[in-house]
Each structure stands twice: as C-alpha cells, then as structure tokens.
Amino acid sequence: MSEANRPEIPIKVNSRRSLGTGNIIHPVELDSSPITTQHRTQTPSPFREIKHFKKWVPWLIPSFVVADTVLFVITMYVNNCPINTVSCVATFLGRFSFQPFKENPLLGPSSSTLEKMGALDVSKVVDDHQGWRLITCIWLHGGLFHLLANMLSLLVIGIRLEQEFGFVRIGLLYVISGFGGSLLSALFLQSSISVGASGAVFGLLGGMLSELITNWTIYANKMAALLTLVIIIVINLAVGILPHVDNFAHLGGFSSGFLLGFVFLMRPQFGWVSQRYTSYYSRVGPRPKYKTYQLVLWLLSLILLVAGMIAGLVSLLRGVNLNDYCSWCHYMSCVPTSRWSCDTNPVSCLSEQTGNQYTLTCSNSGKNETYLLNNPNSSQIRGLCSQLCR
C-alpha cells in the first residue's frame, strides 16, 4: 500500500493528573470496530478526548486575605497605641503604631484590644456565653509578622485547592477547620487569649493530605507527593513548640481538615469518568463512581468529625480543662528551654502612686520598677505591667 493511501489512525491518550507535575501518558487498549465514513473505512482509537476535571477561578481565598488584612488595619486603628501606651514602635504611623516589642514581639496591638475585637477568651465563651469568639478569632492576628506568615501560606495552599475543588467546598473546609482549631485550643489553653488563621490554614494542609489518600489512584508520583506533603506538615507543626504560637489550634485545625478532606474532596474514579466520554467502557459494563475504600473513608470521617465536634463543644461549655486529664499535653504547644519560658498565666501588678511617680510590682515575680507618668489611664498601666512581668 502506498504512503498516500495508508488509512489514517488517530491516536489519543488517556491522562492522569499528578501533584505539581505535568500529565503522564498511559497506554489504552485498541478497539478494532471499523467506522465507515463517506470517504474511507478506518480503525479509530477507543477513546475520544477525555475531559479534565473542571478548573475553578479562585476568588474566595484572595477575598479571605483581603478581609484579614482589613481587619488587622481596623484592629490597629482601635488599638491607638500613642494614647493607650507610654512607648510605641514605629511612632511615625500615628495611631497605627505598634505595641512595644516586650509586650508584643509580633508588631501588633495589645491583648486587651484583641479581646475587644473578638479574640478567643475561654472565660467569656463559658461564663458569658460568647460562643461566637470561636469563629471571630480566626479572622484576627496578633501582629504584622503573624498576618504575613498566615496570608502567604493561605495563598500558596488555598488557591491551588480552590482551583481544583471550587469555592464552596474549600470555603467550608477553611471555616470548619478554623472552628475545630479554636475548639481544641480552648480546651487546653484557658489562661490566655488566642487569635489567628493558623488553624484554618492547617486545615487546608490536612485536607490536601486526605485528598491525596482518598484519590490515590489518579495521582502519578504518589510517594514523592506524599513525602513532600508530610515533610511540610511536620516542619510547620514543629514550629508550634515555640512560645507565643498556639500549636493546639494547629493540631485541631489539621485534624478537622484531614477528616473533612475525605468528605469534601473525594474524586470519582478514573474509569467512571472515562465511561462518560467513551464508547469503550460502555461496552464492558458500567463502572461505579467511587471505589469502596473511598466510601468507607467518607463515612468514618464524617462520623468521627461530628462526634468530635459535639464532644468538644459539650466539654468546653461544661468548663472542662483537658490539661487535668493529660499532664504532658502542654508540651505539644510549647517546650520550655533555657532561652524561653512557656508561662502563659495572666499578669497582674500592685501599683503605688507618689505624685507623678508610679511604682509597679509584678505579683508573679515580685519585680518592681518606678515610672514617671502624667495622669496615666488604665490601659497604659496594664501595658507597663505586661512589659514588667514578661
């Protein structure tokens, strides 16, 4: 047969997606069924072009970043350091200047301002029935460094997930994980306030891990992807043993996100998707949409998540402190060393006034210092006490 008259056989490939890499080509079986056209008879490929999963345009995650940034600016405006504190950092910013480093090393507002804006305070949740603080605290940040670190992580992790799964599922995963992080934090850290989106961001990391597990069959380079993700998670959790970092929020958010990933991020198996676009699979019989192990993980995760959330809420509202049942668990959030202390007990001072001289004595350590002040308000006294006792 001459080259010009040789029948044309179109070649198509079936592709599977990989984590952070290009598509990998997989072989397909040939179907010898002839198709007659007006001009020639040819042996076609068994597959038409297989459509990829829908890609979404991310807008919700960038909106979260904008909302958190705007709230931080509003918090700094309410803080008004020059009026409420004797000394401030970056005074050229006016009322947006930061609290002293000794009081807040993250370049941010005072703890009293954060509490006013909706920080997680267990006593107010339990005694004053302000349960909304379990949600509002994930939109606040303790300082500029805190905000930048969380927002950068949110953009890197969240945009990819929103592109793959859409704003509804990722939005729910983010908020519910943040709530789970706040809940676990409230059960362990009851003597200090807590703020930050870290729990919600760790929820996205947990969702990425469970998504990789439940959709294992559609990934190429599975072990490399799993190892990379586990290393990232371990490093971020290790940072949580430093002081001023709420690792219980990280652990609670990660656990919630991990379970939610099995519920929200489950993909149909590849054979079922191929069956919708090809005639080959329709002849070999229908394929189930999900594999059995996916459905089992979905059910178990949903049960564990709902049961855990209910048990945690009931325990919190009853005033349970989980440290009473786990004497070593506090080391998961902070490991004391010779370089730093993990003491988070609230500070208080005794004040003595002689003219415009104020002598403050820290109730915890007995340390005292005298300040020259002209008609200081209560916020300034609290700020000086915090600096003295820390």
UniProtKB/TrEMBL annotation:
<dbReference type="GO" id="GO:0004252">
    <property type="term" value="F:serine-type endopeptidase activity"/>
</dbReference>
<protein>
    <recommendedName>
        <fullName>RHOMBOID-like protein</fullName>
        <ecNumber>3.4.21.105</ecNumber>
    </recommendedName>
</protein>
<dbReference type="GO" id="GO:0005794">
    <property type="term" value="C:Golgi apparatus"/>
</dbReference>
<dbReference type="InterPro" id="IPR035952">
    <property type="entry name" value="Rhomboid-like_sf"/>
</dbReference>
<feature type="transmembrane region" description="Helical">
    <location>
        <begin position="138"/>
        <end position="159"/>
    </location>
</feature>
<dbReference type="GO" id="GO:0016020">
    <property type="term" value="C:membrane"/>
</dbReference>
<dbReference type="InterPro" id="IPR002610">
    <property type="entry name" value="Peptidase_S54_rhomboid-like"/>
</dbReference>
<dbReference type="Pfam" id="PF01694">
    <property type="entry name" value="Rhomboid"/>
</dbReference>
<feature type="domain" description="Peptidase S54 rhomboid">
    <location>
        <begin position="129"/>
        <end position="266"/>
    </location>
</feature>
<keyword id="KW-0378">Hydrolase</keyword>
<feature type="transmembrane region" description="Helical">
    <location>
        <begin position="248"/>
        <end position="266"/>
    </location>
</feature>
<keyword id="KW-0812">Transmembrane</keyword>
<feature type="transmembrane region" description="Helical">
    <location>
        <begin position="295"/>
        <end position="317"/>
    </location>
</feature>
<feature type="transmembrane region" description="Helical">
    <location>
        <begin position="171"/>
        <end position="189"/>
    </location>
</feature>
<keyword id="KW-1133">Transmembrane helix</keyword>
<comment type="similarity">
    <text>Belongs to the peptidase S54 family.</text>
</comment>
<feature type="transmembrane region" description="Helical">
    <location>
        <begin position="195"/>
        <end position="213"/>
    </location>
</feature>
<dbReference type="InterPro" id="IPR022764">
    <property type="entry name" value="Peptidase_S54_rhomboid_dom"/>
</dbReference>
<keyword id="KW-0645">Protease</keyword>
<feature type="transmembrane region" description="Helical">
    <location>
        <begin position="56"/>
        <end position="77"/>
    </location>
</feature>
<keyword id="KW-0720">Serine protease</keyword>
<feature type="transmembrane region" description="Helical">
    <location>
        <begin position="225"/>
        <end position="242"/>
    </location>
</feature>
<dbReference type="GO" id="GO:0006508">
    <property type="term" value="P:proteolysis"/>
</dbReference>
<keyword id="KW-0472">Membrane</keyword>
<comment type="function">
    <text>Serine protease involved in intramembrane proteolysis.</text>
</comment>
